Automatic annotation (TrEMBL):
Pfam families in the cross-refs: FGGY_C, FGGY_N
UniProt protein name: Glycerol kinase
Listed EC numbers: 2.7.1.30
Similarity-based family: Belongs to the FGGY kinase family.
Gene3D superfamilies: 3.30.420.40
Binding site residues for ADP: 11, 15, 264, 307, 409
Amino acid sequence: MAFILAIDQGTTSSRAILFDQNLKIATVAQEEFPQHFPASGWVEHDCNDLWTTTVSTCRTAMEKIGATAADIAAIGITNQRETTVVWDRTTGKAIHNAIVWQDRRTSEICQRLKADGHEATANERTGLLLDPYFSGTKVAWILDNVEGARQRAEAGELAFGTVDSWLIWNLTGGMVHATDATNAARTLLYDIRKGRWSQTMCDMLRVPMDMLPEVRDCAADFGHTQADLLGAEIPILGVAGDQQAATIGQACFKAGMMKSTYGTGCFALLNTGETPVVSQNRLLTTIAYQLDGKPTYALEGSIFVAGAVVQWLRDGLKIIDAAGETHALAQQADVAQNVVLVPAFTGLGAPYWNADCRGAIFGLSRNSGPAEFARAALESVGYQTRDLLEAMQADWGTAGDTALRVDGGMSASDWAMQFLADILDAQVDRPDVLETTAMGAAWLAGQRAGLYPDMEGFAKTWALERSFAPAMAEDLRTRKYAAWKRAVAAAQSF
Ligand SMILES: Nc1ncnc2c1ncn2[C@@H]1O[C@H](COP(=O)(O)OP(=O)(O)O)[C@@H](O)[C@H]1O
Ligand SMILES: O=P(O)(O)OC[C@H](O)CO
């Protein structure tokens, strides 16, 4: 039996998944690692944790089913995007903790650049906005705050990479400093139209170009693992950022197809084909995947809090013990109460991009309790998705005409998915395999290794587990969504 090893290095855990030659999951290993919050709005990871948990989960997954390196045809890597690592090319040591995508420390730099009128140039080159979310300002922050770093970077001694690059560098023993086009597209340094690093953006953000990795296709040769890591050399043949990998795993290969992933946050990607669509509604233009040198573009809506609102009910309010309890609670909620929760715990992402907004709850009465809170929390994820889809519809026209394919931990909630269908007035399809992110990375590597079918054949393997059809009366849908819009406006003016 031949396997593909998918590495999924996420925000809260590292996972290794072995897929067999029929694209079925053979085993999964997962390890969480600590999150570091050195100041308000700052989020860091220890770069060593990212690396050691990756290797140990790979080893555990292999041990679980007695697979050796000889059984593994190739490795595919998918990763939390934007998170920034800078390391010394000689020692291979990171010079600072990884600055995580959620980190807001460069908010002021972004404000300054915007005030100086740079946003249009940034958007035109990269498809992104001047927001601390992306890597570019994080790299500059490290260079300005670690003693001697800027000088060393200018002397070519330091390397920058998103998490995929950091893992590739370590897996190959420092032989390969590369990334793929989807990860490059999240740095604020990459020209998504020209398909190369942008001198203009590097100058704007003061990032020396010599630090940047080489950009390759998603299915390409990224070197091979050092023999002593997993028992023998294994080729690395696939790389994609996690949301793009999920788009691939959901087989959204045709323009107009869309997926939405509900993990900590929610990321909706609409395949727009060979042309990058410029959003008039504050969505991001990004690369969905790049194969045979040809990029396919996507419009992306990024919401920072989705499943995290359920974690808040559990860990902050302590009104549930496990995420799954929200289903029963939401069912018990008093329908006459219209409690609306705006979960802007770390500001609002698309389409508002309001870093300073904070969470708010409206419509409480003396009878409001855990059930109404749980319902409002699940509903908030549906409302935020509708905001994204309305923006996509305005930019693209047909968004929402096809079913929305969902995945991620929170898509396990039948209640949340039914509400989503209701508030969108659109069909929501949940696939059999919810590990779409890892599946996407596995397919990239597996088809390059000659083990898996081509795009068309792979798309045929997508199987539906459950479809949710809208069942809410139109006037109720209209009233509820209008209440959400009022709540978001009020939260922003607080
Ligand atoms: N049955 C459920 N109902 C509601 N939310 C859930 C359920 N199961 C998991 N979640 C939420 O899904 C999230 C985990 O999803 P996952 O895809 O593993 O996230 P990530 O990759 O961002 O760590 C958690 O925030 C959790 O609260
Ligand atoms: O690690 P996840 O699944 O929360 O995904 C993080 C995204 O890639 C951030 O853009």
